[in-house]
Design brief:
By secondary structure, this protein is an alpha+beta fold. It has 17 helices and 17 strands.
Protein backbone atom coordinates (compact mmCIF):
# COMPACT_ATOMS: atom_id res chain seq x y z
CA UNK A 1 0.00 0.00 0.00
CA UNK A 2 2.83 2.38 0.86
CA UNK A 3 4.55 1.61 -2.47
CA UNK A 4 1.36 2.35 -4.39
CA UNK A 5 0.73 5.57 -2.46
CA UNK A 6 4.22 6.87 -3.12
CA UNK A 7 4.07 5.92 -6.78
CA UNK A 8 0.77 7.77 -7.19
CA UNK A 9 2.21 10.94 -5.64
CA UNK A 10 5.39 11.11 -7.72
CA UNK A 11 5.81 13.36 -10.73
CA UNK A 12 6.75 11.83 -14.10
CA UNK A 13 10.45 12.42 -13.31
CA UNK A 14 10.08 10.35 -10.16
CA UNK A 15 10.37 13.27 -7.73
CA UNK A 16 7.74 14.39 -5.22
CA UNK A 17 5.73 17.50 -6.14
CA UNK A 18 6.87 20.74 -4.50
CA UNK A 19 5.02 21.50 -1.28
CA UNK A 20 5.00 24.65 0.90
CA UNK A 21 4.65 22.54 4.05
CA UNK A 22 8.29 22.94 5.15
CA UNK A 23 7.81 26.72 5.40
CA UNK A 24 4.46 26.77 7.22
CA UNK A 25 3.81 27.78 10.81
CA UNK A 26 3.28 24.50 12.66
CA UNK A 27 0.68 23.76 15.36
CA UNK A 28 2.11 23.28 18.84
CA UNK A 29 0.14 20.24 19.97
CA UNK A 30 2.90 18.53 21.94
CA UNK A 31 1.20 18.79 25.32
CA UNK A 32 -2.07 17.22 24.21
CA UNK A 33 -0.17 14.44 22.46
CA UNK A 34 2.06 13.95 25.49
CA UNK A 35 -1.01 13.60 27.69
CA UNK A 36 -2.77 11.06 25.45
CA UNK A 37 0.27 8.86 24.82
CA UNK A 38 1.44 9.05 28.44
CA UNK A 39 4.87 10.52 27.65
CA UNK A 40 6.20 12.07 30.85
CA UNK A 41 9.79 12.79 29.81
CA UNK A 42 11.35 14.47 26.78
CA UNK A 43 10.06 13.81 23.29
CA UNK A 44 10.78 11.86 21.23
CA UNK A 45 10.49 9.02 23.71
CA UNK A 46 11.00 5.28 23.40
CA UNK A 47 7.80 3.21 23.52
CA UNK A 48 7.57 1.10 26.67
CA UNK A 49 9.52 -2.16 26.44
CA UNK A 50 7.48 -5.08 27.78
CA UNK A 51 7.89 -8.77 28.61
CA UNK A 52 5.35 -11.31 29.88
CA UNK A 53 2.53 -9.21 28.44
CA UNK A 54 -0.98 -10.01 29.66
CA UNK A 55 -4.06 -9.94 27.44
CA UNK A 56 -5.43 -7.08 29.57
CA UNK A 57 -2.30 -4.96 29.11
CA UNK A 58 -2.30 -5.62 25.39
CA UNK A 59 -5.95 -4.58 25.11
CA UNK A 60 -5.27 -1.42 27.13
CA UNK A 61 -2.57 -0.32 24.68
CA UNK A 62 -4.38 -1.50 21.55
CA UNK A 63 -7.73 0.21 22.25
CA UNK A 64 -6.00 3.50 23.02
CA UNK A 65 -3.57 3.29 20.11
CA UNK A 66 -0.51 3.38 22.38
CA UNK A 67 2.70 2.05 20.77
CA UNK A 68 4.70 -0.56 22.68
CA UNK A 69 7.63 -2.93 22.13
CA UNK A 70 7.57 -6.59 23.16
CA UNK A 71 10.92 -8.27 23.67
CA UNK A 72 9.90 -11.91 24.19
CA UNK A 73 7.16 -12.65 21.64
CA UNK A 74 9.47 -13.97 18.89
CA UNK A 75 11.61 -16.24 21.04
CA UNK A 76 10.01 -19.48 19.83
CA UNK A 77 9.55 -18.47 16.19
CA UNK A 78 11.63 -20.17 13.50
CA UNK A 79 11.64 -16.85 11.64
CA UNK A 80 13.91 -15.31 14.27
CA UNK A 81 16.49 -18.05 13.82
CA UNK A 82 16.45 -18.45 10.05
CA UNK A 83 15.18 -15.36 8.20
CA UNK A 84 18.56 -13.71 7.64
CA UNK A 85 19.51 -11.63 4.60
CA UNK A 86 21.23 -14.56 2.90
CA UNK A 87 18.43 -17.02 3.67
CA UNK A 88 15.75 -15.74 1.31
CA UNK A 89 17.90 -15.66 -1.87
CA UNK A 90 19.03 -19.23 -1.15
CA UNK A 91 15.63 -20.64 -0.17
CA UNK A 92 13.44 -18.77 -2.67
CA UNK A 93 15.72 -17.44 -5.44
CA UNK A 94 12.98 -16.99 -8.04
CA UNK A 95 10.42 -15.17 -5.88
CA UNK A 96 9.87 -11.60 -7.06
CA UNK A 97 10.44 -8.51 -4.89
CA UNK A 98 10.31 -4.79 -5.62
CA UNK A 99 12.62 -1.95 -4.69
CA UNK A 100 10.77 0.07 -2.06
CA UNK A 101 9.77 3.49 -3.50
CA UNK A 102 10.77 2.50 -7.03
CA UNK A 103 7.90 4.18 -8.85
CA UNK A 104 8.11 1.95 -11.93
CA UNK A 105 7.40 -1.02 -9.61
CA UNK A 106 10.12 -3.01 -11.33
CA UNK A 107 10.43 -6.49 -9.84
CA UNK A 108 13.63 -8.44 -9.35
CA UNK A 109 14.15 -12.06 -8.26
CA UNK A 110 15.32 -12.60 -4.69
CA UNK A 111 18.60 -14.12 -5.90
CA UNK A 112 19.61 -10.61 -7.05
CA UNK A 113 19.07 -9.03 -3.63
CA UNK A 114 22.45 -10.35 -2.47
CA UNK A 115 24.03 -7.63 -4.63
CA UNK A 116 23.65 -4.93 -1.99
CA UNK A 117 23.58 -1.96 -1.85
CA UNK A 118 20.22 -1.37 -3.49
CA UNK A 119 20.92 0.72 -6.60
CA UNK A 120 18.51 3.50 -5.77
CA UNK A 121 18.95 6.70 -3.81
CA UNK A 122 15.68 8.13 -2.44
CA UNK A 123 15.03 11.84 -2.05
CA UNK A 124 12.79 13.34 0.59
CA UNK A 125 10.56 16.32 -0.18
CA UNK A 126 12.98 18.76 1.51
CA UNK A 127 15.75 17.68 -0.90
CA UNK A 128 18.30 17.66 1.91
CA UNK A 129 19.67 15.26 4.49
CA UNK A 130 17.21 14.86 7.33
CA UNK A 131 18.19 13.33 10.64
CA UNK A 132 16.97 9.77 11.03
CA UNK A 133 15.47 9.43 7.55
CA UNK A 134 16.71 6.78 5.07
CA UNK A 135 18.99 7.57 2.16
CA UNK A 136 18.65 4.48 -0.02
CA UNK A 137 15.80 2.12 -0.77
CA UNK A 138 15.28 -1.40 0.56
CA UNK A 139 13.73 -4.49 -0.99
CA UNK A 140 10.08 -5.22 -0.29
CA UNK A 141 8.41 -8.62 -0.62
CA UNK A 142 4.63 -8.82 -0.27
CA UNK A 143 4.91 -12.54 0.39
CA UNK A 144 1.34 -13.32 1.50
CA UNK A 145 -1.77 -11.34 0.69
CA UNK A 146 -5.41 -12.10 1.35
CA UNK A 147 -6.30 -12.81 -2.27
CA UNK A 148 -3.55 -15.44 -2.57
CA UNK A 149 -5.68 -18.35 -1.42
CA UNK A 150 -4.96 -21.22 -1.19
CA UNK A 151 -1.41 -20.58 -0.05
CA UNK A 152 1.39 -21.76 -2.29
CA UNK A 153 4.15 -24.02 -1.00
CA UNK A 154 6.38 -20.99 -0.40
CA UNK A 155 3.65 -19.11 1.45
CA UNK A 156 2.84 -22.12 3.62
CA UNK A 157 6.50 -22.49 4.56
CA UNK A 158 6.77 -18.82 5.46
CA UNK A 159 3.54 -18.84 7.52
CA UNK A 160 4.81 -21.80 9.54
CA UNK A 161 7.78 -19.74 10.77
CA UNK A 162 5.76 -17.29 12.92
CA UNK A 163 2.52 -17.18 14.87
CA UNK A 164 0.03 -14.89 16.54
CA UNK A 165 1.88 -13.33 19.53
CA UNK A 166 1.11 -15.14 22.77
CA UNK A 167 -0.86 -12.26 24.35
CA UNK A 168 -3.10 -11.42 21.37
CA UNK A 169 -6.72 -12.66 21.50
CA UNK A 170 -7.20 -15.88 19.51
CA UNK A 171 -10.26 -14.55 17.67
CA UNK A 172 -11.22 -15.61 14.16
CA UNK A 173 -10.47 -12.07 12.93
CA UNK A 174 -6.98 -12.08 14.40
CA UNK A 175 -6.10 -15.55 13.18
CA UNK A 176 -7.26 -14.66 9.66
CA UNK A 177 -5.50 -11.28 9.58
CA UNK A 178 -2.14 -12.70 10.67
CA UNK A 179 -2.51 -15.65 8.31
CA UNK A 180 -3.45 -13.58 5.27
CA UNK A 181 -0.83 -10.84 5.14
CA UNK A 182 2.97 -10.90 5.35
CA UNK A 183 5.37 -8.17 4.24
CA UNK A 184 9.14 -8.75 4.33
CA UNK A 185 11.78 -6.01 4.15
CA UNK A 186 15.48 -6.54 3.29
CA UNK A 187 17.96 -3.68 3.22
CA UNK A 188 21.50 -2.46 3.79
CA UNK A 189 22.71 0.20 6.22
CA UNK A 190 21.01 3.60 5.68
CA UNK A 191 18.11 2.00 3.79
CA UNK A 192 14.53 2.12 4.96
CA UNK A 193 11.15 3.73 4.46
CA UNK A 194 10.44 7.46 4.23
CA UNK A 195 7.71 8.73 6.59
CA UNK A 196 4.28 7.51 5.57
CA UNK A 197 1.00 6.13 6.86
CA UNK A 198 -0.38 2.78 5.74
CA UNK A 199 -3.59 2.10 3.85
CA UNK A 200 -4.75 -0.46 6.37
CA UNK A 201 -7.18 -0.36 9.27
CA UNK A 202 -5.53 -2.88 11.57
CA UNK A 203 -3.00 -2.56 14.37
CA UNK A 204 0.45 -3.15 12.87
CA UNK A 205 3.34 -5.08 14.35
CA UNK A 206 6.83 -5.09 12.88
CA UNK A 207 9.26 -7.87 13.79
CA UNK A 208 13.02 -7.37 13.59
CA UNK A 209 15.05 -10.47 12.67
CA UNK A 210 18.54 -9.28 11.70
CA UNK A 211 20.36 -5.96 12.05
CA UNK A 212 19.20 -2.85 13.87
CA UNK A 213 16.66 -0.33 12.65
CA UNK A 214 16.04 3.25 13.80
CA UNK A 215 12.33 4.05 14.04
CA UNK A 216 10.38 7.29 14.26
CA UNK A 217 6.66 7.56 14.98
CA UNK A 218 4.56 10.71 14.88
CA UNK A 219 0.98 11.89 14.68
CA UNK A 220 -0.63 12.95 11.41
CA UNK A 221 -0.90 16.75 11.40
CA UNK A 222 -4.17 18.59 12.15
CA UNK A 223 -5.02 19.88 8.68
CA UNK A 224 -7.66 22.38 9.87
CA UNK A 225 -5.19 23.91 12.32
CA UNK A 226 -2.49 24.14 9.64
CA UNK A 227 -4.87 26.08 7.42
CA UNK A 228 -5.94 28.34 10.30
CA UNK A 229 -2.35 29.20 11.21
CA UNK A 230 -1.36 29.86 7.60
CA UNK A 231 -3.90 32.12 5.84
CA UNK A 232 -4.05 31.36 2.14
CA UNK A 233 -2.75 27.82 2.52
CA UNK A 234 -5.16 25.10 1.38
CA UNK A 235 -4.20 21.50 2.04
CA UNK A 236 -3.64 19.42 -1.10
CA UNK A 237 -3.38 15.71 -0.34
CA UNK A 238 -1.35 14.88 -3.43
CA UNK A 239 1.09 17.75 -2.95
CA UNK A 240 1.39 18.09 0.82
CA UNK A 241 0.88 14.73 2.56
CA UNK A 242 4.37 13.29 2.23
CA UNK A 243 6.08 16.60 2.98
CA UNK A 244 3.96 16.91 6.12
CA UNK A 245 4.78 13.35 7.18
CA UNK A 246 8.51 14.02 6.70
CA UNK A 247 8.31 17.21 8.73
CA UNK A 248 6.49 15.34 11.50
CA UNK A 249 9.22 12.65 11.59
CA UNK A 250 12.07 15.15 11.39
CA UNK A 251 10.88 17.89 13.74
CA UNK A 252 7.95 16.58 15.80
CA UNK A 253 8.29 12.82 16.38
CA UNK A 254 6.54 11.32 19.38
CA UNK A 255 8.84 8.32 19.52
CA UNK A 256 12.36 7.51 18.32
CA UNK A 257 14.32 4.37 19.21
CA UNK A 258 16.45 1.57 17.81
CA UNK A 259 14.82 -1.81 17.22
CA UNK A 260 17.00 -4.87 17.75
CA UNK A 261 16.57 -8.50 16.66
CA UNK A 262 13.75 -10.13 18.61
CA UNK A 263 11.92 -6.83 19.19
CA UNK A 264 8.36 -6.44 17.94
CA UNK A 265 6.96 -2.92 17.81
CA UNK A 266 3.17 -2.51 17.86
CA UNK A 267 1.51 0.72 16.73
CA UNK A 268 -1.97 1.77 15.58
CA UNK A 269 -3.08 2.58 12.05
CA UNK A 270 -2.73 6.27 11.27
CA UNK A 271 0.63 6.98 12.90
CA UNK A 272 3.32 8.42 10.64
CA UNK A 273 6.31 6.08 10.70
CA UNK A 274 9.75 5.88 9.13
CA UNK A 275 12.68 3.48 9.44
CA UNK A 276 16.41 3.52 8.74
CA UNK A 277 18.82 0.59 9.06
CA UNK A 278 21.59 1.42 11.54
CA UNK A 279 25.19 0.62 10.47
CA UNK A 280 26.99 -2.16 12.26
CA UNK A 281 29.23 -1.33 15.19
CA UNK A 282 31.32 -3.22 17.71
CA UNK A 283 28.27 -4.46 19.59
CA UNK A 284 26.85 -7.80 18.53
CA UNK A 285 24.81 -10.70 19.81
CA UNK A 286 23.78 -14.15 18.69
CA UNK A 287 20.78 -12.74 16.85
CA UNK A 288 22.83 -10.76 14.37
CA UNK A 289 22.50 -7.19 15.62
CA UNK A 290 26.01 -6.48 14.28
CA UNK A 291 24.91 -6.96 10.69
CA UNK A 292 25.01 -4.22 8.05
CA UNK A 293 21.99 -5.91 6.51
CA UNK A 294 18.51 -5.88 8.02
CA UNK A 295 15.59 -8.26 7.65
CA UNK A 296 12.21 -7.59 9.21
CA UNK A 297 8.60 -8.44 8.55
CA UNK A 298 5.23 -6.87 9.30
CA UNK A 299 1.90 -8.41 10.28
CA UNK A 300 -1.43 -7.04 11.49
CA UNK A 301 -4.18 -7.92 13.94
CA UNK A 302 -7.76 -6.69 13.86
CA UNK A 303 -9.09 -7.22 17.38
CA UNK A 304 -9.36 -4.99 19.26
CA UNK A 305 -9.62 -2.00 16.99
CA UNK A 306 -8.11 1.21 18.44
CA UNK A 307 -11.51 2.84 18.91
CA UNK A 308 -10.53 5.16 21.76
CA UNK A 309 -7.63 6.41 19.65
CA UNK A 310 -9.87 6.79 16.59
CA UNK A 311 -12.45 8.83 18.47
CA UNK A 312 -9.82 11.09 20.07
CA UNK A 313 -8.06 11.87 16.78
CA UNK A 314 -10.92 11.44 14.29
CA UNK A 315 -10.51 14.97 12.92
CA UNK A 316 -6.89 14.22 11.95
CA UNK A 317 -7.31 10.64 10.78
CA UNK A 318 -10.23 11.49 8.49
CA UNK A 319 -7.93 13.85 6.57
CA UNK A 320 -5.43 11.07 5.80
CA UNK A 321 -6.78 10.29 2.35
CA UNK A 322 -3.76 8.19 1.38
CA UNK A 323 -3.76 6.21 4.60
CA UNK A 324 -6.48 5.43 7.12
CA UNK A 325 -9.08 7.91 5.87
CA UNK A 326 -10.91 5.10 4.09
CA UNK A 327 -11.16 3.10 7.33
CA UNK A 328 -13.89 5.31 8.71
CA UNK A 329 -16.56 3.93 6.44
CA UNK A 330 -17.75 1.33 7.01
CA UNK A 331 -15.39 -0.06 9.67
CA UNK A 332 -15.00 2.71 12.25
CA UNK A 333 -18.07 4.84 11.62
CA UNK A 334 -20.29 1.79 11.95
CA UNK A 335 -19.21 1.60 15.60
CA UNK A 336 -19.44 5.35 16.03
CA UNK A 337 -22.85 5.91 14.47
CA UNK A 338 -24.69 2.71 15.32
CA UNK A 339 -27.72 3.36 17.51
CA UNK A 340 -26.79 7.03 17.88
CA UNK A 341 -29.73 8.22 15.85
CA UNK A 342 -27.50 9.67 13.13
CA UNK A 343 -28.85 6.97 10.82
CA UNK A 344 -32.38 5.66 11.23
CA UNK A 345 -34.84 3.73 9.12
CA UNK A 346 -37.44 5.94 7.50
CA UNK A 347 -40.56 3.89 6.78
CA UNK A 348 -41.87 6.37 4.23
CA UNK A 349 -38.59 6.36 2.31
CA UNK A 350 -38.07 2.63 2.85
CA UNK A 351 -34.37 3.19 3.55
CA UNK A 352 -31.86 4.34 6.14
CA UNK A 353 -31.61 8.13 6.17
CA UNK A 354 -29.53 10.70 8.01
CA UNK A 355 -31.14 12.54 10.88
CA UNK A 356 -31.23 16.27 9.97
CA UNK A 357 -28.24 18.12 11.39
CA UNK A 358 -30.35 20.45 13.47
CA UNK A 359 -32.14 17.48 15.08
CA UNK A 360 -29.20 15.17 15.78
CA UNK A 361 -28.95 15.96 19.47
CA UNK A 362 -32.63 15.03 19.87
CA UNK A 363 -32.18 11.91 17.72
CA UNK A 364 -29.23 10.77 19.80
CA UNK A 365 -31.00 11.44 23.10
CA UNK A 366 -34.09 9.53 21.98
CA UNK A 367 -32.04 6.50 20.92
CA UNK A 368 -29.96 6.52 24.09
CA UNK A 369 -33.03 6.58 26.33
CA UNK A 370 -34.90 3.91 24.37
CA UNK A 371 -32.14 1.46 23.41
CA UNK A 372 -28.80 2.08 25.09
CA UNK A 373 -30.15 2.71 28.58
CA UNK A 374 -33.48 0.85 28.81
CA UNK A 375 -33.37 0.66 32.62
CA UNK A 376 -32.98 4.45 32.90
CA UNK A 377 -29.98 4.51 35.22
CA UNK A 378 -28.09 6.95 32.98
CA UNK A 379 -25.59 4.41 31.62
CA UNK A 380 -25.39 1.93 28.77
CA UNK A 381 -23.72 -1.22 30.03
CA UNK A 382 -21.98 -4.00 28.13
CA UNK A 383 -24.98 -6.30 28.60
CA UNK A 384 -27.46 -3.68 27.36
CA UNK A 385 -25.41 -2.84 24.26
CA UNK A 386 -24.69 -6.52 23.49
CA UNK A 387 -28.42 -7.26 23.46
CA UNK A 388 -29.20 -4.72 20.73
CA UNK A 389 -28.16 -6.62 17.56
CA UNK A 390 -30.40 -9.58 18.38
CA UNK A 391 -33.28 -7.29 19.34
CA UNK A 392 -33.09 -5.57 15.96
CA UNK A 393 -32.15 -8.60 13.87
CA UNK A 394 -28.74 -7.18 12.92
CA UNK A 395 -25.92 -9.39 11.61
CA UNK A 396 -28.21 -12.43 11.72
CA UNK A 397 -26.63 -13.83 8.55
CA UNK A 398 -23.03 -13.28 9.65
CA UNK A 399 -21.85 -16.46 11.37
CA UNK A 400 -18.65 -14.71 12.46
CA UNK A 401 -20.49 -11.99 14.38
CA UNK A 402 -19.64 -11.86 18.08
CA UNK A 403 -22.09 -9.70 20.07
CA UNK A 404 -19.77 -9.41 23.06
CA UNK A 405 -16.86 -8.23 20.90
CA UNK A 406 -19.16 -5.83 19.06
CA UNK A 407 -20.46 -4.35 22.33
CA UNK A 408 -16.93 -3.92 23.62
CA UNK A 409 -15.99 -1.99 20.46
CA UNK A 410 -19.09 0.24 20.55
CA UNK A 411 -18.50 1.08 24.20
CA UNK A 412 -14.80 1.74 23.58
CA UNK A 413 -15.70 4.24 20.87
CA UNK A 414 -17.98 6.25 23.17
CA UNK A 415 -16.62 5.62 26.68
CA UNK A 416 -14.38 8.66 27.17
CA UNK A 417 -13.64 8.08 30.87
CA UNK A 418 -12.83 4.37 30.28
CA UNK A 419 -15.07 3.06 33.07
CA UNK A 420 -16.46 0.28 30.86
CA UNK A 421 -19.89 1.81 30.27
CA UNK A 422 -21.35 4.73 28.33
CA UNK A 423 -22.94 7.65 30.15
CA UNK A 424 -25.58 9.83 28.57
CA UNK A 425 -23.13 12.74 28.81
CA UNK A 426 -20.59 10.76 26.78
CA UNK A 427 -23.05 9.57 24.15
CA UNK A 428 -24.46 12.92 23.06
CA UNK A 429 -21.14 14.75 22.39
CA UNK A 430 -20.24 11.98 19.93
CA UNK A 431 -22.85 13.35 17.56
CA UNK A 432 -21.53 16.89 17.88
CA UNK A 433 -17.95 15.76 17.23
CA UNK A 434 -18.72 13.63 14.19
Amino acid sequence: AAVAAVAAALQPDGKPPTSPVWDLAWPDDREQLREWFGISGPMPAEPPRLRNVSVELYRHHAERGLPFIVEDAMDEWDALRTWRCDYFPRAYPDEQVVVFYEHTKKKVPLRETTALPVPMHIENTANRTLAGLPEVASYYWYAIEEKSRPHSRVQAELAAAYALPYFVDRTADNEATVDDRLEIFIGQAASGALPHTDQMCEFIFSCQVQGRKAWRLGMVPPVAELERLNPGFVWDEMRDAFAAFERVAEQYPLYAWTQRPGDIVFFPPGLVHSTKVVPADARSDERGADSNCSTSFSLQFRDPQPYRFVRRFADRLMQDGRGVGDCFFPLWLERLFVFTGVWHFDEAAGANVLCPVEQRAQCAARVFDADIDPDGDGYGTHAEVAALPAAYGLYADDWRFDADKWAREVIAMHDTDADGRVARAEWLPTIEQT
